[in-house]
Amino acid sequence: MNTSLLYIKRCVTLSLIGLLSLTVQRSTAATASDSLQWGGLGVYDSWEHSPFMTGQLKGHVSLEQGTIAFQRSRYGSNTYGLRIDLRDPFELTPQLKYVHVRILKPKAGRTMLIGLGKRHDRPGQSNRTEQFWVYSTQSVEPGQWTDAVFPVKGAGGIDIHSLVVVPDCESTHDLASDFMTYIGTMAVNNSPVSATLSTSYPLAFSPEGATVAASEGILSVGVTAQDVIGTEIRVPQLADGRLPRYAAMLEQALDVTRGEHAVFTINGQPAGKGAVSIDLNNDGQFAPDERFDGAVDLPASTPYGYYRLRLERGSAVVDTRLNVHPSTVTVNQEGRNGEVVMADGRPLAALKLPFGKAIAVKVIPSHGFTFSGVRVRYGYNLTADRLLHGTPQYVEQVIPRSAFKANGIGVFPAELVRGDVVVEGLFVSK
């Protein structure tokens, strides 16, 4: 065994003191009722010709030192992962939920979660039908336990029966050897906060479990600029009708352009004195001169990008993002074994298109290939780390094949064109 794996095994032994069983116990960000228990383990690959799906190869999954050990094989695709069959399925709802998974791995790379399940209105559908693909909101650092957080949602009426943890969602062409990944606790809850994420933008209180009455909390935040009603973000209420004292709505954003007078609102009313903070230099802190009395004159020199935005009302706090955007965005495509073009045939090569407008595209596989969907990445600094002091700089979303017509034409909705865009066709051999 090589030294990196020996190091990982030592980390596992030290980190698991106190874990008594493999019921996939709750993470520190969850309550007891949030924990997910597994009823079976296996492997999964979304590539239908994968040797692990055809039966040519058998994946390696075992229980070691009170955790799940999974061998990431170089013979699987970039979506090859550990399949965890849940004892009790959970429902995808229009409101975001967050799946927390404790992961330890020796290699850097994006981490993905795939949800397998079935719709209530399709009794004949397999409960291993892919319902979502989503990346972790933060990097899983090699050699240390990380509470990876995955935001999930659906239209409702969809039960998730299995979760697939993909520890290394990168091309396997440069993967010289297999490596072991370890999975500890799992939970699903309303908290987007990773239990192991370093603290930027500190709060004056612990957000875990803190709630306020609906009359005292923040139901919505918004922005109006140049007398035009802008975007609004609504905070989901909790089951008892109360509101979280702290809500991290970091997958959403309020849109503004630079050089304009932006007026922020809380619950539909102008935000009060000192209620708005914007980290305009993106250093992970709110400086005194980055705190405003409800309105901000954005300098015309403000770089385009996402900025951490905090709005406060009484003791309630909402963190989200401010999207300082241009009037046009740049769209490119990458990948191989096919291409994605505009529906009218124009190539997606530094193409300038209007911000916030839907895009009609066509997917053209190469000979001998078809496609399983299209991955869209939108935002800023698209080749850099996704998180900057915990604030997402871009969002990735997979649009499934079912959203496209038989001729390969489909539409990217306007919410996916709110920054620069990179499009990747997910081509698979026939």
Number of strands: 32
Q: Number of DSSP helices?
A: 2
Rg computed from alpha carbons, rounded to a whole number of angstroms = 22 Å
Percent of residues in helical segments? under 10%
Tertiary shape: globular
Largest sheet: 5 strands, antiparallel
What is the distance, rounded to the nearest whole angstrom, between the alpha carbons of the first and last residues? Answer: 37 Å
What does this structure look like?
With 430 residues, this protein is mainly β. 4% of the residues lie in helices and 47% in strands. The chain contains 2 helices and 32 strands. Strands 1-4-9-6-7 form a 5-stranded antiparallel beta sheet, with no helix packed on it. A 5-stranded antiparallel beta sheet has the order 2-3-10-5-8. Strands 12, 13, 16, 17 and 20 form a 5-stranded antiparallel beta sheet that branches. Strand 16 (261-266) and strand 17 form a beta hairpin. The longest helix is centred in the first third of the chain and has 13 residues, at 3-15. The chain is globular.
